Structures are given as structure tokens and as C-alpha cells.
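Researcher: Quick one. two chains, 466 residues in total.
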Amino acid sequence: MTAILTATLVIAAVGALAALALAVADRYLAVREDPRIGLVTAALPGANCGGCGFAGCGDYARALVAGTAAPGACAPGGDAANSEIAKILGVAAEATERRVALVKCCGTRSEAIRVGDYNGICDCAAAAATAGGDKGCRYGCLGYGACANVCPKHAIRIEDGLAIVDKRLCVGCGKCVSVCPRRLIELVPASATIHVLCNNPVRGPEVTKVCGVGCIGCRLCEKNSGGKEAGHFTFNGFLAHVNYENPPADATLVAKCPRKCIKEDPHFEAGV
Amino acid sequence: MRYFVIIVGAVLVNNFVLNRFLGCCPFLGVSKKTETALGMSGAVVFVMTVASAVTWCLDHFLLAPLGLGYIHTLAFILVIAALVQFIDIAMKRFMPPLHAALGIFLPLITTNCAVLGVAELNCKNGTPFLESVLFSFAAALGFGFALVLFSGIREKLALADPPRCFRGVALALVTAGLLSLAFMGFNGLVKTPY
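Model:
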């Protein structure tokens, strides 16, 4: 009987001591955190996407409270989260436009010419490193899904050898932008609807050799949207690029592009 | 010389994971990246060394004099769990950089079987204090060594194209088995005291 009693008492005493030690430690050793850190963390969406440039929502919240970061860098949270944070911190919120990823290529398997067979590791970087990949166009989407694999929201899928972003799911964290070996993904304002889906800046004849829908830099889109003065398009070599500071709104541009590489809101549609 | 034999014995010959099969869950769980494997190893080395010192004192100064040796497993679990929580709090206050590196792994190894196993072994073998702590430190080093080796292999294997039925955990278990077989080669390298 005494044996049971001693055992019970000893274990109870050890447990009580441990509990006491933890209670004391929690009371006197605990790190006092600014209570605003918790509030800001709660206001952030908790996606931990890293789009703001910090390791996660907690890190961004700490930087915000410390004053080393400004509100407005959180793309997934959008205006709602940013104004909430600004209210907690007592600073003025800047309205931010939601940005989404755009894959600037529309060279599907039927349109873009393949110059070889690639049977290696199913990854864009590996394919690009193997003699430049199987696609004839050195600037186009390889379609091995490096961006889809890295997307925290599963907003990118591969269809017909092409990455397609679902605008509704994309939070604009920019992970796909940095992982793409061809650097053809760009963050664009979510409100823009007309896009040039090509990334090939070389001369027209070179482009037409490798792709049925590559931009040849004919500048018809610029002419049809009010000329150079209107400033809806910029040109890099023989490649048109939408000026997202001043995007065109005229949907007839889509039908007027002779190469069919200007698309209206490709994000929603299956198969561009 | 005796201490050297203890270290070689615990790291290579009687490796905790690959020979005694203790601590298999972190071995399989956090071995996908070498970076996290290193963090986990650091946390295990720290906790196992401190925990063995504390449990040795508990066993020799409280349980053994009262004739309660049979209850040590229960007492060890209790003390180690509280100790790890305490270290977590204290480290956050006094050593923030170390806490940032090891912090997330500390709660994971609260009552890890390797940590409890080393306390049990020390108790069973009746080793003196210094040897117990050294043995625990070396055993944790061996655990970390195996974990880092394994994570290196798994990082390479992630690029391989195995048959469908072998993908994921199956291949990890096969790899662990092969690594364990390789460590069998160290058998008889030194005559270990325990």
C-alpha cells in the first residue's frame, strides 16, 4: 500500500514541480510581444505565400509593426486587409490594384512547332537546360508546369502544353514569375482585359517559322488603338506589349490582330 | 580512449536510427530537405544531451533512493516534456537566433522515442553521469548524421523517375532499409561497452 502511495505522490510531486516551473517561466521569461503583431497577423489572410517579400504572414506583420514595411504589399488580402492593417497601425492606406499572373504565350501544341522529343525530367528548368527544350520558339512556354508546381493556390494548370492561370484563384504572389526559366510570366492588373500573349522579340520571319500565333511586331494593334500618341502599347524589338499603366479597352483589337496573339481575358477560359 | 569508443559506438556501430530503430518518425518525416534535417538534428542534439543529464539526476537522486526504479519511464516522460517546453520559453527569451533556427522542431521532439530511449538506456546500463551525457550527445550526433545522409539521398531521389508503385513513402522506406544495411558494415568496428 505504501509503495503505491509513494509512487503516486512522487509522480504527482514531480508533475507539480514541472508545472510550477513552466508557470514561473511563462510569467517571468515570456517575451513580451507588441499586441498589435497578433492583430495584424489576424488581419492578414494567412496564405503564407511570400508575395510581400517576407517569409510568411507572421514575418510581414512583425515588419509592419516595427515600421520597416508599409501596408499594401499583401496581394491576397487586397484592399480589405490593407485598410484593416492601416487602421490597426494608425496610418493611411493606399489603394492597391489587385495583380494576377499572366502567361505571355499562346503557342499550344497545334500552333507552336516542336523541334524534338523531350523525355527527361518533367520540369521546365530541366527541359530548358536540355538543348533549350523541345519547343522551336526559344521564348515560349515549355508546358512542363514549373509554375503550376510552385503555385500555393493551385491557380495554374497545364493545358495543351501551355500554362494557364485562373484569375479567380491567383493571389499575385509572384512565385511563378521567378521560377519560370523563360521569364514569360508577368504580374498584370486584374482589371486589364486585353493582353498580348507572346514573349518572342525576334523578327517576324523568324517568329513565323516556329509559331503560328507569335507576335511579329506589325504594330497594327497600336494603329488600331489610336496610334503611338494613345500609348496603349509599347514595343520591345518586334514584340508588342500592353502598357498596363494605360491599357486598351477596345475588344475589337482581338479580332484585328493578324497573328491572333492578342486575347481578351484569357484567364477564365479553358484552353485560351 | 573509453570516451572515444563510446562516441564511435553510438554514432556508427549502434546508430540510434539505423541500428536500434529509435526516432524513426522524424527520420522519415523531416528528411525531405537537408536544410530542415540539419535544424532537426541540432534540436535533437540539444534536447537529448540536456534531457539525459536531467533524467540521470532524477533517477539517481529521487527514484532509486525511494525504490521507484520501476516507474522511471513515466517520470521521464513527464520531466522531458516539461523540460522541452521550458527550454522553448527560455530560448525564445535569451537566444532568439537559436530559437529561430531550432524553435519549430522543439515541440516535435517533446517525447520523441530517441530522447526517451537514451534516458532508458542510461538507466538500464547504470552508467556514471559524465558517460551518460556523453553517450546521449554521441547518440544524438549519430541520429543527426543518419538524418542528414538520408535527406541527401532523398533530395537526389526526388529527381528520379521510379515505377509508380515505389513513389513516395515506399521508396523512402526501401532507402532507409538500404542505409541501415550499409551501417551494418560497422558492426564489430569497436567493442562497445553498451
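The domain at 35-89 of chain A is CATH 1.10.15.40 (3-methyladenine DNA Glycosylase II; Chain A, domain 3).
Researcher: Thanks, that's what I needed.
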